[in-house]
Specification:
Length: 332
Amino acid sequence: MTAPYRIFGSEMSPYSVKVRSYFRFKGVPHEWVPRNADSDEAYRRYAKLPIVPTVATPDDEGLQDSTPILEAVEGRFPEPSMHPDDPALAFLSALVEEFGDEWGNKLMFHHRWYADVDQAASAQTLARLSLPHGTAEQVAERTKMVHERMTGRGHFVGSSDANAPLITAYYLELLDLLEPHLATRKYLFGARPSFGDFGLSAQLYECSVDPTCGGMIRARGPAVLDWCHRMLEPRVDGTFEVWESLKPTMAPLLTYVGRYFLPWSTANAAALMEGDPEFTIELAGAPYTQPPQKYHAKSLAALRARYAPLAGNAALAAILRDGNCLPFLRPA
């Protein structure tokens, strides 16, 4: 019997939860291996970078980075597909996946490590996960170490006192847009999960387990919370919808992507190209400042490359134009 895939991950890692959700959906035999002291030796055999998730394949190969992991496994196990047959909807799903990975992570990470209550809860949870058999003293020492390390990394997502009220507003606006969309359907594109569901739901699921964002999502987005939990064990319950039925509540979400995520991602790439130590962009009338990040520029380039062969799709271009997304996907 072929050995199953092994997913080295953490319950506090949105990208780990994303990959595990996908493997469950596909029905691919796998083992969930918590990344902790007990699994360290096995993990290091496959991890070129010290990140989770890291997937060990039956061929003894190591895979990293959640999006390439999903795409690699989709090639080996194409059914049930996470991509709508309609090329326009398939691209919109990929756009939402990218949006979730990059912008959704900003919302989650900032809130997890900004307020004292979130810092304390998250640091202790991570310490407990990394030392499942640790003594109280060992866990306390690990909690202190995690707290010091993680609270010093907020600049990667633009977390700052100046940006804090903006990021909270972005989060609440996103919940308010998703709530009516998910109140009438199980998944973003219909009755079955898509690429976009995996990317965005995992970030919001992690928001839901933290004190501050968890309270917000329970108060403002009960249907969103249901979706986050549904995505832990996603399944095919029907078909993908067509754009006409999705449009009333999906179009506002795409407009949000075109108002915040794509302008920010484009400005980040430009700052990197110019060698600027930080960049400022006006988002919905308010200046937002942060240091540029290399990975975001790479992922924007990949998204544009994904769109390029679809540039002649008039239906897709119209949808993207209406959401102010098109200028950022085919820049001059």
